[in-house]
Design goal:
The chain is an alpha+beta fold. The chain folds into 2 domains: 126 residues, Serine Threonine Protein Phosphatase 5, Tetratricopeptide repeat (Alpha Horseshoe); 196 residues, Jelly Rolls (Sandwich), CATH 2.60.120. Strands 1, 2, 3, 4, 6, 9 and 11 form a 7-stranded antiparallel sheet that branches. The chain has a 4-stranded antiparallel sheet with strand order 5-10-7-8, with no helix packed on it. Helix 1 runs parallel beside helix 3, helix 2 runs antiparallel to helix 3 and helix 6 crosses helix 7. The protein is elongated and about 95 Å long. The chain starts with a helix and ends in an 8-residue tail after the last helix.
């Protein structure tokens, strides 16, 4: 005969009291009756699981937990009981999967009671333990392969860091134009650019010309400037902010005659560089200044058909640069090239100004024809719109 609600509630209370009092058989029989009557919500099933577990009937306890999860897949208590059972029976990978779900589900849950907070902390610790064991297992096997085949490449090493959750995946996200099927490379290998040696060799000459410009603080202007023809998004606090300033030698595809004339050795050093040439847009070549305490917020570049190059000229301690999941420190005289359509940011926590020479080049994967087509495409866009379409770096 079916139970009335009042009878069911009374049985639930009686079962809970029996469970708390250690009368596990009475508790089991009470909750089994509720289940048979169709009153098997998550709380009843978990109480039944506790009673069966206390009586040593692991199979029945697990069946009750599974039934609870079938009804409430994100029930944290049921997930923990399932994970603990798997862990106790030596099923580590399966237990880890359940502990991970506990941690993820708890992250979006409202305020948890104290016992669940403790359970989540334990689940997190278990996840870390299993992850460490997993990593040690893989590294041991990979060490055997490396001993026979040679050391791992930098990109395979990064793949392992991504697999272990030590790094995050960042992809190209150009704000304006995406050229498909280009490799996702954050910092390009140094040996990809034979001309970079000659640019680096001119560091002292370039720095001397920079120092002369720095004698005139007004020569620099905020890198991010507003335009009456464009809406302003605030630019992360960088709009019209002199903390990030520029002195252009080339701007939007043309030399800045007066500035270029002041820096002839810098211009000569770049003579063989494959600057990305798009009429009205690029290249831009500039001394990029970041004042003490300033930070350039994370952002993405406009097009993935170019790379951005930095030649560090004045770099005090406490300056850093991140592209995707890789962070580097500038070293004076050592250049690099990176994909600015991958999220990147910069900072200067020192008490002195940081300055680099910044310029844009064609991506090496683009053929001559592709470069010509990209250039012609943007030129046609600007002609149609009746004006230049300069972008920022």
């Amino acid at each position: 005969m079916a139970l009335h609600d009042a009878e069911a509630n009374a049985l639930i209370q009686a079962g809970v009291l029996a469970l708390r009092g250690g009368d596990f058989m009475t508790a089991r029989q009470t909750f089994e009756r509720l289940v048979a009557d169709g009153r098997a919500d998550g709380a009843v099933l978990l109480s039944l699981a506790h009673a069966c577990g206390a009586l040593g009937d692991t199979e029945a306890a697990l069946a009750a937990v599974d039934a609870a999860l079938a009804r409430e897949p994100r029930n944290l208590r049921a997930l923990m009981m399932k994970a603990d059972h798997l862990a106790s029976t030596g099923q580590g990978p399966a237990a880890a999967a359940y502990y991970q779900v506990v941690v993820k589900a708890a992250a979006s849950a409202p305020q948890l009671p104290a016992d669940l907070q403790q359970a989540v902390a334990r689940a997190r610790a278990q996840c870390e333990r299993y992850a460490k064991e997993f990593e040690e297992h893989l590294q041991a096997r990979l060490g055997e392969v490396a001993a026979a085949q040679g050391p791992a490449s930098a990109r395979f090493t990064q793949s392992m860091e991504l697999l272990f959750g030590k790094k995050q995946v960042y992809m190209q996200q150009p704000r304006l134009y995406y050229f498909p099927e280009l490799p996702q490379i954050q910092f390009y290998p140094r040996d990809s650019f034979g001309w970079m040696d000659r640019v680096e060799a001119a560091t002292a000459d370039i720095r001397d010309e920079l120092l002369a410009v720095l004698d005139e603080p007004s020569a620099f202007e905020p890198y991010v400037q507003g335009s009456p023809n464009r809406p302003s998004g605030g630019q992360g606090g960088m709009l019209n902010n002199p903390d990030w300033s520029a002195y252009y030698l080339w701007q939007n595809g043309v030399p800045v005659a007066e500035h270029a004339a002041r820096c002839p050795r810098t211009m000569r050093a770049l003579a063989e560089v494959p600057l990305a040439r798009v009429p009205g847009r690029s290249p831009s070549v500039l001394f990029s200044l970041l004042r003490p305490g300033a930070r350039i917020p994370p952002h993405h570049g406009f097009v993935n058909t170019r790379l951005i190059c930095h030649l560090p000229l004045i770099v005090p301690p406490g300056c850093g640069f991140r592209v995707g999941n890789e962070t580097r420190e500038w070293v004076e005289g050592q250049a690099w090239a990176f994909d600015d359509t991958i999220e990147h940011e910069a900072w200067n926590t020192s008490d002195r100004t940081r300055v680099i020479l910044l310029f844009e080049i064609w991506r090496p994967e683009l053929s001559g024809t592709e470069r010509a087509l990209v250039s012609a495409m943007f030129e046609a866009i600007d002609q149609h719109r009746g004006g230049g379409g300069e972008w920022s770096i």
